[in-house]
Write a structure and sequence with these properties.
The complex is a heterodimer of chains A (237) and B (243). Chain A has one domain: P-loop containing nucleotide triphosphate hydrolases (Rossmann fold, 3-Layer(aba) Sandwich). Helices cover 48% and strands 11% of the residues of chain A. Chain A has eight helices and five strands. Chain A has helices at 26-39, 56-64, 70-94, 105-115, 119-125, 142-152, 171-192, 204-218, and strands at residues 14-19, 44-48, 98-102, 134-139, 196-199. The radius of gyration of chain A is 18 Å and the shape is globular. In chain B, helix 3 (79-103) packs antiparallel against helix 4. The chains are: A alpha/beta (237), B alpha/beta (243). At the A-B interface, helix 2, helix 3 and helix 5 of A face helix 3 and helix 5 of B.
Chain lengths: 237, 243
């Protein structure tokens, strides 16, 4: 089946996404980008991973009660994503807005494969999704990300540290093992999908300048006109 | 009675299926064809013969609980969320009920299986390949019995004095028919009846398509109940003998 995320979309809006491991600083960068775009009078919509009203409670309950398997974990996140895609991503894209997404399908490709699902299976599952106009990947070594996470709080979250995988009893050791596997997976993904890699060890301001330059170039031919022709729906044929 | 099970597609890389002792027997058929009643009798019949039997249904996994019902009651499900919710529910039951039971040597009777999800998703516009690959983690059943019925015979099974009153009072929908089993989300007809007929016709067409693709053992379910029951027992006996 053709995977939509491999084909350029035809919506008048623009989709910009950021990826990176926890503590890579991607959210900070996206927020700064948003400030700049809004200040430049663009109509912007922001959405983040794992936040739909539809299955959020199920995911939380599943995590708390340890009911999730790698496969149900993966499908539930795809369900969450599908719900947000159809309600929060495609409508603003059709309306000609700039959609900013904190994490996108590549998060699932990295995490779920590390948890043990088949690589092709998870890609196919997300086959209905829209290809981003720009996909930034904030690349950072484990030690830096761990330091950043722990500077804001004292402990690691259970799933963030990959404790469900039984890699180690120690959350810090588990975090390093889990996130380094994710980093390896991300490295493959950035090549596979031609993502724009940003060195996330650089000062925040330097990273943001790079990000803005790239976005500026991409918005050259962008005309924020709403989509008025009645053509296709969001479904894959 | 030990054999190697295989996955329908890409499979569960972290599950070893090489030594499952049980049998997975699927009964498929559209809404109201009488699957559940047959299942109950088959379970009893097998248990009398000394087989351990586990049954599994559709959309009743502990993980999903009321999530699917809640999502449906909102009536704003998109095609892909609809299919994915079913897939999550199915995966949960597969990994927590079906696989452990098969490992332990039970006969698992499945009231509906992935083919129901295929039919419902495809008639709503899903890509056939996409939905088949999504359910690639499922196990291939040892047998799929398809209770086939035509629309003329299905209507009186679903719309009759008992069901109308039950639906009307219990669901409180006021329409006498289930919203989703009537495909009301697809806007196929002006009222529940028209919608039900059009929707079920499409579902039945898709099942006919799959009957060839997946080599269903087709049973004529428009005949009387006992006759269908006998045919099912014959089919199951043959599978258990081959083991």
């Amino acid at each position: 089946m053709p995977r939509n995320f491999e084909i350029d979309h035809s919506y008048p809006g623009r989709l910009i996404i950021v990826e990176g491991i926890d503590g890579s600083g991607k959210s900070t960068q996206l927020q700064l980008l948003q400030k700049w775009l809004v200040n430049s009078n663009y109509k912007v919509f922001f959405t983040e991973w794992n936040s739909s009203a539809l299955v959020n409670d199920t995911i939380k309950r599943g995590k708390r009660k340890n009911l999730l398997t790698p496969t149900t974990f993966s499908i539930l996140h795809a369900t969450d994503f599908a719900d947000r895609l159809v309600h929060l991503i495609i409508p603003p894209l059709k309306a000609g807005m700039i959609v900013l997404a904190d994490r996108y399908i590549y998060t699932a490709f990295a995490r779920d494969v590390v948890r043990g699902v088949n690589r092709e299976w998870v890609r196919n599952m997300y086959g209905f999704t829209v290809k981003p106009d720009i996909a930034f990947y904030f690349k950072v070594p484990i030690e830096v990300s761990l330091k950043r996470i722990l500077s804001g709080r004292t402990s690691l979250k259970f799933h963030e540290a990959g404790m469900d995988l039984g890699l180690s009893e120690d959350p810090h050791v588990s975090f390093k093992l889990f996130q380094s596997q994710i980093l390896e997976e991300y490295d493959k993904i950035t090549e596979e999908f031609g993502m724009t890699v940003i060195d996330a060890t650089l000062p925040i301001h330097d990273q943001q300048s790079q990000v803005r330059d790239i976005v500026k170039a991409k918005l050259k031919d962008y005309k924020p006109m709403p989509f008025l022709k009645k053509k296709e729906n969001v479904y894959v044929r | 009675m030990s054999d190697k099970k295989i996955f329908f597609g890409e499979g569960l890389p972290y599950v070893d299926v090489s030594d499952f002792k049980g049998k997975l027997i699927v009964i498929e058929g559209t809404d109201g064809v009488g699957r559940s009643t047959q299942m109950g009798l088959l379970k009893q019949w097998l248990e009398v013969q000394g087989y351990g039997v586990a049954t599994t249904g559709w959309t009743r996994s502990p993980l999903m609980g009321k999530a699917i019902d809640n999502a449906k009651s909102g009536h704003t499900l998109s095609l892909h969320t609809f299919s994915l919710l079913y897939a999550a529910d199915f995966a949960d039951r597969l990994e927590h009920e079906i696989i452990p039971a098969l490992k332990a040597g039970f006969i698992v009777l499945a009231d509906r299986y992935i083919y129901t999800a295929f039919a419902r998703s495809v008639v709503r516009g899903a890509d056939r390949d996409w939905i088949r690959e999504l359910f690639g983690f499922a196990l291939e059943p040892d047998a799929i019995f398809y209770m086939k019925i035509n629309i003329e015979n299905l209507i009186p099974r679903v719309i009759n004095t008992d069901t109308l009153m039950e639906r009307y009072w219990e669901d409180g929908s006021g329409a006498g028919l289930d919203y989703w089993e009537s495909g009301m989300d697809m806007k196929l007809g002006d009222d529940f009846y028209d919608s039900f007929v059009e929707y079920q016709k499409k579902i039945l067409e898709e099942f006919d398509f799959m009957a060839k693709e997946f080599k269903f053992k087709v049973l004529d379910a428009s005949k009387n109940f006992e006759e269908t029951n006998i045919k099912l027992k014959e089919g199951i006996t043959a599978i258990l003998k081959n083991a």
